[in-house]
Write a structure and sequence with these properties.
This protein has 313 residues and is an alpha/beta fold. It folds into 2 domains: 114 residues, Aspartate Aminotransferase, domain 1 (Alpha-Beta Complex); 177 residues, Type I PLP-dependent aspartate aminotransferase-like (Major domain) (Aspartate Aminotransferase, domain 2, 3-Layer(aba) Sandwich), CATH 3.40.640.10. The protein is built from 12 helices and 12 strands. Strand 5, helix 6 and strand 6 form a beta-alpha-beta unit. The relative contact order is 0.18.
């Protein structure tokens, strides 16, 4: 009897649930439903090194300074958050109403709620690159709020610089460094006043001490330009693999691709321990999203695809 596969989660990253259904360990699943940097160094050794900080209350100033220096902004404009999700929650609460143009990352509508949505184009929130299309914003495109969760992996740069022009920018370090369990995000504000208003909404000790201690080590290992180049090459390889299998692929410049008319692909691959993202939460039913895997993941995906094609004959 085939195992009962878990229903698609709204945001992907359901590898542990699939592993449980298949009787595997989570690390045995190739989870392409969450877009994480496959080239990032393994964070576990650094976590072990800094584990002693869990006996103390978190203190964020040193980690904030490290990230501000890396981005090249004043630390008074930067707020570290408990993942990009908290940054979105804080900005939505402080800056509502905002305009959301679909398709867009669903957390914005969730945290804005119906009363927080605006028809005013000048109050737009826009992910850059767009999540889920993977397309970068035009140079003249404006938004009140920018979501740069995947900007570094797409461009090799920390930010486009919109906060210097009066916008508020949110980001997700857990995507860049492939450590979503640590929950590291940030809000980059046009000035210190906006930063303080967001900080006033944030619970005390919001970012845990282990994440704060690990962040300077992660920043020291960052290779944004190199990662962008290699990810672009891997994305091209992924597109070739999928199109050769007869699938309809749409690729932007982000570290993922969309496959249209492919709702069947999620359960088919899942039975082989490969998880892709259902895009219904983006308003794209029958579309799946695959994060760009590293070289070993690419080989495993190729084998799983070949097995699925053989089973369908």
């Amino acid at each position: 009897m085939s195992p009962q596969l878990p229903a698609p989660g709204e945001h992907g990253g359901d590898g542990a649930l699939l592993a449980r259904a298949l009787g595997l360990r989570p690390e045995e699943i190739l989870d392409l439903s969450a877009t994480l940097n496959p080239l990032a160094p393994d964070v576990t050794a650094v976590v072990r090194k800094e584990a002693a900080v869990t006996a103390r209350y978190p203190e964020a100033s040193a980690a904030t300074g490290s990230l501000a220096d890396a981005i090249g902004v004043a630390r008074e404009r930067l707020l570290l958050t408990n993942g990009g999700a908290e940054a979105i929650s804080l900005v939505a609460a402080e800056m509502a109403p905002l305009r959301v143009v679909e398709p867009e990352f669903s957390l914005w509508r969730r945290h804005l709620g119906p009363a927080g949505l605006s028809p005013d184009p000048s109050r737009r929130v826009r992910s850059n690159p767009n999540n889920p299309t993977g397309l970068l914003a035009g140079l003249r495109e404006k938004a009140l709020v920018w979501d740069e969760a995947f900007y570094q992996l797409t461009t090799g740069c920390w930010t486009r610089g919109d906060a210097d022009e009066g916008s508020t920018v949110v980001g997700s370090l857990t995507k860049l460094f492939a450590c979503p369990g640590l929950r590291l995000g940030y809000a980059l504000c046009p000035d210190g006043e906006v930063r303080e208003r967001l900080a006033a909404r944030q619970p005390a000790w919001s970012v845990n001490g282990l994440a704060l201690a690990v962040l300077p080590h992660l920043l020291a290992a960052a290779r944004l330009g190199e990662w962008r180049e290699e990810l672009a090459s891997l994305r091209e390889e992924l597109v070739g693999l999928l199109t050769t299998a007869g699938l309809e692929v749409a690729a932007g410049t982000a570290p993922w691709v969309l496959v249209h008319r492919a709702g069947f692909l999620r359960p088919a691959l899942a039975r082989h321990g490969v998880l892709v993202r259902d895009c219904s939460s983006f308003g794209l039913p029958d579309t799946v999203r695959l994060a760009v895997p590293g070289p070993a993941g690419m080989r495993r995906l190729a084998n799983a695809l070949a097995a699925c094609l053989e089973e369908s004959r």
